[in-house]
Amino acid sequence: MSVTGGRATGTGVGAKVESLRNELRSLQDTMVGQTSRVNTARAEATANARDYHATRAAITARLQRGTTPGNPELVSQWNTAQAQLDAVSADINAMSGLSTEIATNASTANYLLEATAATFSLSGAVEDDHRQLRILQDEVRQTTVLIERLLTELRDDIARQTTYVANERSSLTTLANAIKAGELFGSGLAVSNIAPPAATAAAAPAPAAGTPALVTIRFDRPDVQYQQALYTALSRALEVRPAAQFDVVAVSPAAGSPDRVQLAQSQSRRNAETVVRTMNEMGLPADRIRLSATTRGDVTANEVRVYVR
What we know:
This is OmpA-like domain-containing protein. By secondary structure, the chain is α+β, with helices and mostly antiparallel strands.
């Protein structure tokens, strides 16, 4: 970008043209500096994203080989990955600030366009004033196009990077749960952004008798490892119905003394709450899950059943 100079004509219009020319030079100088800062922010975001992916890949590879639950080395790597993703967020914030500054430049360029057009109507001009004014007008238009292009590209970058960071935060949550369990579940659940139906005042009905459960988890021994099977089942259900919602039902035996039945109900409820937390950690929003409890005479151990609705 450059501004074409012109000889002084000694007229008031000529002085106005020179003033506008100086304003355009100042605008272009500002734009050059901002373009450099945009390129720097983009490069930093790319570098931080590359570092983040390298760290996440190392965690994933370790989990795929198998490791101990809550491995402190993986926890440390996860913290590093989170810090690297935070750095990408900081880069996005920097780009957002630049977007605001560049939008101000666009306003200045529009002002110069209007001022240049208005100068043609001033009296007391010589032919060379209008010749210089036409050149200046073309250069203002070119500068305006460049500013608008930079602003559009930057806003697209910000939107794309914002979506990327949001998705990766969900993936990090899933990864944290995998580290806790010592095994890899997969990427975050592919949850649709479609809002679930609004809740009504009446309680929603429980799954109808005979409805097959998506997953049945039997808590008939300590430390039941259900996470991978649950993740796989939820993933498949969401592939078929991205807006699906789920019922998590705590099922306890109905047989036994009243005290024993009550104890089983409490334990089953706690198990179901743990399953719900696991589903949340896998990326399923809380408003997609409904928790309930029941007793059944045909079960001999506490269960948690997950249904699609």
